[in-house]
């Protein structure tokens, strides 16, 4: 069931641009205090966020600056989060965030 608002929800990352990610505590998205806070394997990132029906409007994306051996998931996810995106709800409490930058698939975590 689609939450009325993403505020206060937590998600684990399933895939970035169709490619499954390793998962675990380094792959998450949380919506809290009007911010999207996320990690895609390496750096922590955040952006002010607004949900307008099935659209996600983000602001400036801020990230820590660690260098990691494989930053592909993070680089590709950041390309999505920098632009307004469409939200789609799927079976198994999944949320897809997509736009011209790519696609992130999340699964609700509690």
Describe the structure.
- The chain is mostly beta strands and 110 residues long.
- Helices cover 9% and strands 51% of the residues.
- The chain is built from 1 helix and 10 strands; from the N terminus they run βββββββαβββ.
- It has one helix at 72-81, and strands at 10-16, 19-20, 27-32, 35-40, 44-52, 55-58, 62-63, 85-90, 94-99, 102-109.
- It has an 8-stranded antiparallel barrel.
- Strand 9 and strand 10 (102-109) form a beta hairpin.
- It is globular, with a radius of gyration of 13 Å.
- The relative contact order is 0.23.
Distance between the termini: 14 Å
The percent of residues in helical segments reads under 10%
**Unreliably modeled segments:** none
Give the strand line-up of the largest sheet: 1-3-4-5-6-8-9-10
Strand percentage, roughly?
A: over 45%
Shape: globular
H-E string:
EEEEEEEHEEE
Taking the sheet with the most strands, its summary is: 8 strands, antiparallel, barrel
How are the secondary structure elements laid out?
Layout: E1 10-16, E2 19-20, E3 27-32, E4 35-40, E5 44-52, E6 55-58, E7 62-63, H1 72-81, E8 85-90, E9 94-99, E10 102-109
Antiparallel strand pairs: 1-2, 1-3, 1-10, 3-4, 4-5, 5-6, 5-7, 6-8, 8-9, 9-10
Task: Provide keyphrases for this structure.
about 50% strand, mainly beta, about 110 residues
Structure described in brief:
With 110 residues, this protein is mainly beta.
């Amino acid at each position: 069931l689609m939450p009325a608002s993403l505020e206060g929800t937590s998600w684990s990352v399933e895939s970035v641009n169709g490619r499954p990610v390793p998962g675990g505590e380094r792959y998450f998205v949380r919506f809290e205090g009007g911010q999207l806070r996320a990690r895609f394997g390496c750096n922590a990132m955040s952006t002010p966020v607004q949900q307008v029906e099935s659209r996600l409007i983000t602001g400036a994306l801020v990230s820590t600056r660690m260098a990691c051996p494989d930053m592909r998931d993070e680089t590709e996810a950041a390309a999505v989060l920098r632009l307004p995106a469409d939200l789609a709800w799927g079976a198994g409490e999944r949320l897809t965030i997509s736009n011209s930058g790519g696609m992130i698939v999340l699964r609700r975590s509690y």
